[in-house]
Amino acid sequence: MQPYPPSSVLIRAPFLENRPWDVFELDLKTGKKESLTAHMPADTDSYNSCYLPDGRIIFVNTSGMQGVPCVAGVAYVGNLHLYDREKKTTRRLTFDQ
What we know:
It is a single chain. This protein is mostly beta strands. It has strands at residues 8-13, 22-27, 33-35, 46-51, 57-61, 79-84, 89-92. Strand 1 (8-13) and strand 2 (22-27) form a beta hairpin. It starts with 7 loop residues before the first strand and ends in a 5-residue tail after the last strand.
């Protein structure tokens, strides 16, 4: 795997129409942005992303559609996901409430 590009950063933004928050990779030299989480369910949020040394990306997503009980379920629970850009796969790592 390729390590992360040194001229890029991960950002969270609602750039895509009809999508909540997604994780994007922003190329600092060209200004080009690429959504890395547009494949996640449309009604979920992706945020708090981080490059791993091997080039994969870890991020939080609300894909479990779980709510926090002490606030009547109105706050969604985020779980860790691992994105492998070479394989184009995402794996949910945690199953917390």
